[in-house]
Amino acid sequence: MLARQRQEEIAELVRQHGSIRVGALTERFGVSHMTIRRDLESLARRGHLDKVHGGAVTPEHGSTAEPAFREKRSREVAAKEAIAAEAARLVAPGCAVALTAGTTTWTLARYLLDVPDITVVTNSVRAAHTLHTHRRQKQTVVLTGGVRTPSDALVGPVTAAALASLHVDVLFMGVHGMDARQGFSTPNLEEAETDRAMCRSARRVVVLADHTKWDTTGLATIAPLETADLLITDSGIDGHGREVLERGVGELTVVEPARPPRPAAPVPPTDAPIEGVRT
């Protein structure tokens, strides 16, 4: 494959997934780390991506940029579904749970619709709306007040005050990034403070993060890796990331996203010749 073709594919992968690691690219294209780094440098100079430690991200995803909910919702859908399904297994009737804002926690909210007699505390406008509108069991939904962010989180002093007096059995926390040194992070300073308040209110902290969050750092650290009693991610996480997380968090669970069904073979028209038969 020519370098230009490879770089075009790399740029498309970053646009689709928001970020990508050097290790994943070397495996995909069968070239050296040095070759991939040169490709990333070339693409960065042309404005197609931002080169970061260990990989690349889309240009708008610097440490302070915060993608909108609609934009994030379409990324890594299969991974988020698998992570949410695994997380839902931890919720039993009678539990009090908290959900931070984010597309993975919103996906979890949909899996909780059939769990009866639970109380859900959340600063996610989307998750609260889903639980209130579509629930099929008796549930209590507590939506904190606050100022709304681009990711549809409610943050600020009003949110922090509401959380200070609450105590839940388990918090499910979504994150923008996770890193060996910076821990779990987000682009929004106030959202980081809100997430820390949620961590303080919970007996158990469960982080939900697909593999693209590894080696990504937002502006503000929420908490170090050891804050997570359990981290649920997907099998796209690379070997180094898995090793670091296994050492850093209390427990690591890796789930396998469902593969999309293979398209059926097209049915030839009835008047088409049958292969191998002369007409």
From TrEMBL:
This is DeoR/GlpR family DNA-binding transcription regulator. InterPro entries: Carb_Metab_HTH_regulators (IPR050313), DeoR-like_C (IPR014036), DeoR_HTH (IPR001034), NagB/RpiA_transferase-like (IPR037171), Tscrpt_reg_HTH_DeoR_CS (IPR018356), WH-like_DNA-bd_sf (IPR036388), WH_DNA-bd_sf (IPR036390). Residues 257-279 are annotated as: Disordered. Keywords: DNA-binding, Transcription, Transcription regulation. Residues 3-58 form the HTH deoR-type domain. Residues 258-271 have a biased composition (Pro residues). One of its GO terms (molecular function) is DNA binding.
